[in-house]
Structure formats: structure tokens, C-alpha cells
Amino acid sequence: MMEFVEIGKIHSEFKTLNNMPIQPTGEKSLKGEIVINEEYAEGLKDLEEFSHLIVIYFFHEVKEHKLIVKPFMDDAKRGVFSTRAPVRPNPIGLSVVEIEKIKGNIIYIKNIDVLDQTPVLDIKPLVPDFDFPKGEIKVGWLENRSKGVKEKESDHRFVQKKEGN
């Protein structure tokens, strides 16, 4: 059995999934905070030397998974593993955010696209030489669609329906 520990929470202005950006590069992505639990705060040492973080988090509002989805950037049905859809067998997400400053156990960030109160599983510094592959990068079905991501917001596709609706 695998077990993960929540190391903190993301705080953002996004209280619901409606109209939030679908990627952190979105024009409406705003500032937020990652509050690291006190028992892990010592692990933030030296992080202020980096400009960006990879944040790994738990999609805590996802209640089901689907193997075939209609992703935000397309109207065709796609395999979930070829998308960034949150309805995954293991509802784990990641975002790259910019660090503004760190004070105590709080990381002040820019370009957050994550729901408020989302549990954080891990953070890692972004290092281009480690994280960006060399050579040609293929982006599959997103080839002619990814340019519009900055204006794209979430819609009803992955919002849980309330009982009786």
C-alpha cells in the first residue's frame, strides 16, 4: 500500500473550478501561497535561491476517474494519459509556479492555477537543464491547440454534478 503525506496547502483565489485557468500560464493566473506544515518548514532552506517550483498536489475534489475524456483544448475524446485532465486513476497534478518570496513556512508564488485548499504532496525546484529535454519535443494532438492556453478557462467538463442535477 502506498501512502502519501500532505506537506502543506495551496491558497489561491480559486474557490470553485469554474472559470479558473487550465494551466499556470493562463492570463488570469494570479498570486497565491503555499503554506508548508511547520514540521516540514526546515526543508525550505536554500529554496529562495530558485525562481520557479514544480508543485505536486492532490486533486482533492476529484471523486471519479475516467480513462477517456474530452479535454479542455479539444472536443474529441482522448485517453486520459494524453491529457492534463484531473480525473485520473491517481488524482495527482503538477504546476510550475514562480517564487516571489519565502517567509517562514510560506512560499509566496505567482501563476497559480490550482483550487484553494489543495493539499501539497511535494515541491521541487525547477532546473531547466534537468527538466527540459534536449532535441525535438512532440506534443501530439495539442500541436495546433496549445497556443490558446493563456485564454482558456475551465468549464463544466470536470466539475462534479450535485445529486439531483
Structure in words:
The protein is mainly beta and 165 residues long. The protein has one domain (8-153): YaeB-like (Elongation Factor Tu (Ef-tu), domain 3, Beta Barrel), CATH 2.40.30.70. The chain has 1 helix and 8 strands; from the N terminus they run ββββββββα. The chain has a 6-stranded antiparallel beta barrel with strand order 1-2-7-6-3-8. It has a two-stranded antiparallel ribbon with strand order 4-5. The longest helix is centred in the C-terminal third of the chain and has 4 residues, at 128-131. The termini are far apart. 21% of the residues are buried. The model has no long low-confidence stretch (mean pLDDT 83).
Explain the layout of strands and helices.
Layout: E1 8-11, E2 30-36, E3 52-58, E4 68-69, E5 78-79, E6 92-103, E7 106-112, E8 118-125, H1 128-131
Antiparallel strand pairs: 1-2, 1-8, 2-7, 3-6, 3-8, 4-5, 6-7
Key structural traits:
single chain; 165 residues; mainly beta; Elongation Factor Tu (Ef-tu), domain 3; six-stranded antiparallel β-barrel; two-stranded antiparallel ribbon; 8 strands
